[in-house]
């Protein structure tokens, strides 16, 4: 039975033509289809991911369908997008899951229908619910900024705030755990004086930092799940006159965040590469369409520590490199 596409999804699941050889910007008739489902359409990270998917689909003679949640955490829209893409006959689906557990049954149905499903950026829970994962090593990304923060503190006692993502999202847990590992502590360490969820949102990051400062005014190290949350934290710290004496570290490597490192608002960030995730994912679907060979396992798409204040023992690149490789 062919699923009907709800009218609302026609806005978010628009068919974007890929380009076959000599296609003049249009895919050849009957070209294999690949689907891309991101968490939102507005986050620059996912805008760059879609750009990479479009470029790779064009280069590999595929037709791209894209969809996104209405907001970060919108599992229902992602489920509907999967169902509609399967009904449209896609060979493969690339997805950044909003709810890493709740999306698994829909992914299982797609795989049972013969569709290759690859997670980008965020692994499902369990990770093997998809055929493959193309992503940053988020544990390593967190570990890099944790090692950096510890070295930058140079033995001074730390009072740490962690501004996290949300419960049950693997990418948030991996980055958080990586930071603690890099710093050489655990969640119950007394140096962690406040933890708040931000959903990676700048306004929520500011509120979370304000709450933490009320609870523990002496905070001097702030870990953030991403750069929007970091900039929210910086705004709150600046309002209290604390922007010069608190070390903020983050993950993402977007252009706005990298410029914030350059200006000193953020001390260091772990840069990831969404363009590469999408390009490699589409290539894997093209290979599957041609040969039936499925991508499997985890492919690390790279992470680089970006800072202009390097510390001994922690490998890093400066913001000139970061700006040459940023997104957004």
From TrEMBL:
Residue ranges occupied by any Periplasmic binding protein domain in the UniProt entry: 34-293
InterPro entries the record matches: Peripla_BP_I, SBP_2_dom
Keywords: Signal
Domain of life from the UniProt record: Bacteria
Pfam family, one: Peripla_BP_4
Gene3D superfamilies, per database record: 3.40.50.2300
Entry keyword Transmembrane: no
Subcellular location per the Swiss-Prot or TrEMBL entry: Cell envelope
CDD domains: PBP1_ABC_sugar_binding-like
Family that this chain belongs to: Belongs to the bacterial solute-binding protein 2 family.
Protein name: Sugar ABC transporter substrate-binding protein
Gene source species: Actinomadura luzonensis
